[in-house]
Specification:
Strand order of the largest sheet: 1-2-3-4-5-6-7-8
Oligomer: single chain
CATH superfamily: Aldolase class I
Distance between the termini: 19 Å
Radius of gyration: 17 Å
Strand content: 15-25%
Order of helices and strands: EHEHEHEHHEHEHEHEH
CATH class: Alpha Beta
Bound molecules: phosphoenolpyruvate
Largest sheet: 8 strands, parallel, barrel
Helix content: 25-40%
Length: 247
């Protein structure tokens, strides 16, 4: 179901004390915002302690992992499965460009992990996006998504979230324009259909978020660096909510 989602990808940053403070601050900071689903994706080690801070009863804030393995259990040293985290994670990021680049993940891995997430009733946030910007490069993300979804049942597409993340915009301070992101997302929707939430990610901050979320095509954001600063992340959520209600 389409809805406003702001997800924070903390990557491999902070220690447990930082994670607890940040989670408590953002949880309290968005307590009065309605019409928003906020997702925190901390390092896996922190998922359990943070789930105690978030508690079981909140609908508008939840945890996501940054990755899962495609098998549910077995001799896979160092891996964490969907089956292990499903009680505390509503979401998992899959196919982030850093996983594809540094860990060699390809579309087959993304497809297998997507199926594992769905099997365990975890919502996959599938990241797609082109590496370099050219006049036509916004078309590449939809093609990548088509490859990533090979073998995934079409009837499951409404259970996914997709994040359009042009790699050239990640961590560079050079966000795509909302118009450019909307063009890529329109093509992504031709692949997944109209029920799947599609986010934008890449150098989102409190100043530029509304430009993205006020557009009908864009259902929210996956935020990296700015999600590590409590005040900035809360402001992103506030501005996103405001922009959707004025749309
Ligand atoms: C990301 O890593 O998914 C991301 C969008 O990072 P940043 O917001 O820092 O560009």
């Amino acid at each position: 179901m389409r809805r406003l989602i702001i997800a924070g990808n903390w990557k491999m940053n902070g220690d447990l004390a930082d994670a607890e403070v940040l989670t408590t601050m953002v949880k309290n900071g968005v307590a009065n915002l309605s019409g928003l689903e906020m997702v925190i994706c901390p390092p896996s080690l922190f998922l359990f302690p943070l789930s105690e801070i978030i508690g079981k009863n909140l609908k508008h804030i939840s945890l996501g992992s940054q990755n899962i393995y495609h098998e549910d259990k077995g001799a896979f040293t160092g891996e964490i499965s969907g089956a292990m985290i499903k009680k505390i994670c509503r979401y998992t990021i899959i196919g982030h460009s850093e996983r594809r680049e540094y860990f060699g993940e390809d579309s087959e891995d993304v497809s297998d992990k997507t199926k594992a997430a769905i099997r365990n009733k975890i919502i996959p946030i599938i990241c797609v996006g082109e590496k370099k910007k050219t006049a036509e490069s916004y078309k590449d993300a939809a093609k990548e998504l088509k490859r990533d979804l090979k073998g995934v049942d079409k009837s499951d597409y409404a259970k996914l979230v997709v994040s359009y993340e042009p790699v050239w915009a990640i961590g560079t301070g050079r966000a795509a324009t909302p118009e450019y992101a909307a063009k890529a997302i329109t093509l992504i929707r031709e692949v997944v259909g109209l029920k799947t939430p599609v986010l934008y990610g890449g150098s989102v901050d409190a100043e530029n978020i509304a430009g993205f979320t006020r557009r009908a095509e864009i259902d929210g954001a996956l935020v990296g660096g700015a999600s590590l600063k409590a005040k900035e992340f809360i402001k992103i959520c506030e501005n996103a909510v405001k922009s959707k209600s004025f749309a």
